[in-house]
Amino acid sequence: MPEDQTLPPLLTENFRETARHYIPLSPEEESTMLAKVGVKTLSDLYQHIPQAIQFQSELPVPEELNESETRAHVSRLANANRPLPSFASDGLPDWTQPEIVARVSALRRLATSYTPYQPERSQGTLTAHWIYQCLLSEITGYEAVNSSLYDRSTALVEASFCSLRLKKKSSLIAVAGSLEPSDLDVLDTHLADTAFDVLRIECDPKTGRMNPETVRTILAEQADEISAFAFPQINTFGVLEEVDALTDLCREIGVRSIAVIDPFLLGPGGLQAPIHFGEAGADIAIGEGQHLALEPNFGGPGLGLFAIRFDSKHRNDIRNAPGRFVGGASDRSGQSGKVMVLSTREQHIRKEKATSNICSNQAFLATLVGAALLRRGSEGLREAIASARSSLQAFLGKLPEIPGVRCAFPESPVFTEITLATDFPVRDALEKGLEAGILVGTDVSARIPSSQTSFLKLTFTDRTTSEDLETLISVLQACAKEGSASDAASVAEPPASALRSEGPEIPRFSEEELYAYYRKLDALNAAPEEAPYPLGSCTMKYNPYLNEWAAGLEGFTRIHPAAPESCIQGSLEILFETQEWFKNMTGLAGVTTQPVAGAQGELVGLKMFQAYHRARGDEHRNVMLIPRSAHGTNFATAAMAGFPAGRGIALLKADSTGCIDPEDLDAKIEEFGPRIAGIMITNPNTGGIFETAFAEIAEKVHKAGGLVYLDGANLNAIAGWIDLGAMGVDAVHSNLHKTWTIPHGGGGPGDGIVAVSERLTDFLPGKQIIRNGDHFTTITPPSSIGTFHRHWGNFAHKVRCYTYLLRLGKEGIPRMSGTAVLAARYLQKSLDDQFPLLPTGTDAAPRMHEFILSLTEEQFEALEKVGVSRPQAIPSFGKMFLDFGYHAPTVAFPEALGLMFEPTESYTQAELDRLAETAKAIGELVISHPEIVRDGPHFTPVKRFDEVSANRNPVLRESMATLPETPAIGPASCELLARPVPEILAELRNLPIAAEAVEA
């Protein structure tokens, strides 16, 4: 097939955008499809499910809005917010962002594609993540930077677990009390009910920073138990810590050092890179990267930076690190490209032995950060840092003119932030600031509980204007009490050792050059709006453009999470309404919108289970029941929550129908009885089969004293039809990036709202939003387990989800899931005469939104004759879908010899027919030309990679003096989709390798 060097057209709004509920099926197509699967209505697809657990009436949610009504409603909410110039960052500073970020955000093949498990059609995403890794490696100095975690708080948690794994028999993670309190709260929440504890070392209240000798003494006393010490470079008071001394004493005592840094401030003219802390550098560096590319967005989505050593002295540390890494590789033709490496650490392979339960990360933010850094370059970072420093110096020059205000820690150096001691309550300044139109700063008085003084922290960035400074000074002067003295004391400057002496070297590209490059990366991917994206258990559906418009409204993007309640009424209303919708859609009593991914939602659920049992005096309940066929995250989450592999997880067998074996369940309950904390079930299960006995299973577990967790990964099959409360569910997460149309972003960010039964409402994490008349406010549940996010979760995704719900309304929700089931049944019916259904012997069990097929014995044997083993036959078959313009189905999960298809509701009958035709064509090709399948894919930008070599000697970074080379696009996925299947099949049969096989 000739290579086409022209870029395919940009994806823009299409017929799916204007279809009611974003479902493009015509009434005639729906009738034809219903007839083919042997039913008359969508409700007939659910007739095998007990009526007692189905909703008995319409969902108690509003009617759908049309597009103009939705725009007006969401605009009203955005306008109800009041973004203001801000000196309040509290760990999330607000820097100016380059225009390239918005332009790259609109590239749909990058924004909506899945995690790049099929590298041959994912080089766009992989290269974008490679750029991020290399640039952050250049900034921090570390050999290995993963392609993102949820946020800085989660990165601290993951670094802690990593260090605990690296130091066998350790049980403590020591932390500086000068870290951001929200980060410490998240760490405490995660480590509760595990075998590990947090040792908090307080800072010196006189200097506002850690005393190295105090730290040394405390660490030395428990050196054997302590795995690592985590400390900030710039602490919660804006003070620079003595990072060299802290790093060196960690090495001296035998504990690892975890440096918490701000990557933005490591640019030229900025602070020292953590690789150069002390004699040998910190062992691990973590930080927040949201502000490298995004505005505050009410606190999310964030981006967690995680960097670790990977050199001759530290070859194995990375094996204990969390998250994904992208590495260099060569395909079978010798062409270079990128693949994910070291994946055997991850949950989908290692299950309860994984290094983390994280599945979705913040992948698309990593893409945007890479673009933003290349647009800024080293000089752009230097200019921004210099601007912030200049504003701080200008303020300090005026400090003597402000009575009753002084530097809180004059002997401790600062960089872009400063904490002031005030003779007046900080709340007075905050209130006067609102009247003047600014956010004055952050009240940090409670962070030094031993002091009666009021403390106000100010943050300066390149957004700080001279007008903002004048307003700030006027507000502070207006707060001064009569007779208050002024402070003329100087503030300590950073020592030379704290500053960067060279680098980082980041090239700077023009807007148009960079956009053209990312457009090419975009063309190397496939997108779910082009055609079915049949990944099973991934729910790849159309992502409406209207959602993106809503999330991009300035009233949402510019609002800071530290803003007072009066300024955030629009955001609070969205969170409140989202809570109410999910209560009503699930039939459950409470909702938390804080979790930022399905895996984190699972962890939230299990942590609430533990708190519930602890409150009842049942701490001995330490066993979780999980079916063998469950998603890998279930096992990894259970282990992370404190149900360790081997003794905390009991596996459940399946019966001949593919559902949980009731006899095995009874036996496990008999065996573990009073130790059972709960059960985790996916329903429909990973075979696409609905567990019709779910309510009975729940009753048995409840009778044994346990709780019931529903993995909501497959809610796209049952939303609006099944009452989870009636099923006996105690907690369920809902993947917004699956069921509720949030774009996958090449692997994230996701979202994982959790709904709970009455049993657990008192234990919900974070804040609950309540309505008092027309005003929205927050409360903390009485027995809250703590917090999983330093702010409000991935707020921008709540905007997208809420916008989608408005367009669905009470009729659209069941129509969405019903059509998804219809599409799967129709596709299955189109293929079941060609391919066997798995699990074996379950043909009579109705499938819901997804199904698993295998190959025939003849097909397996044909591939074996050309050297393809049975375990490799399934991935090889899957890769051939790429040659027809599709992404592959899910391969070898949960059945080793299976292909899992999930077509979703977003496609027409004709689109589903072409997908079925493609599967049949590949099946024919296996018999007639198995060597073509063995060596596929053939029409992708790169061919099959040597992933064994890529993993044996991982290459994780390169110098970024120029933009990385990319492969020729060849035929883009949309061009392959435009061609008839027989035409592509004929071309495959005429490839040289086919002729060589005939001659042989």
From TrEMBL:
Q: Which SUPFAM superfamilies match?
A: PLP-dependent transferases
The biological processes this protein is annotated with in GO are: glycine decarboxylation via glycine cleavage system
* Cofactor(s) the record lists: pyridoxal 5'-phosphate
Quote the InterPro entries the UniProt record gives: Aminotrans_V_dom, GDC-P_C, GDC-P_N, GDC_P, PyrdxlP-dep_Trfase, PyrdxlP-dep_Trfase_major, PyrdxlP-dep_Trfase_small
Q: Which reaction does it catalyse?
A: N(6)-[(R)-lipoyl]-L-lysyl-[glycine-cleavage complex H protein] + glycine + H(+) = N(6)-[(R)-S(8)-aminomethyldihydrolipoyl]-L-lysyl-[glycine-cleavage complex H protein] + CO2
Give the species this sequence originates from.
Puniceicoccus vermicola
MF terms per GO, please?
Answer: glycine binding; glycine dehydrogenase (decarboxylating) activity; pyridoxal phosphate binding
**One Pfam family, short name:** GDC-P
Keywords attached to this entry: Oxidoreductase, Pyridoxal phosphate
Recorded protein name is glycine dehydrogenase (aminomethyl-transferring)
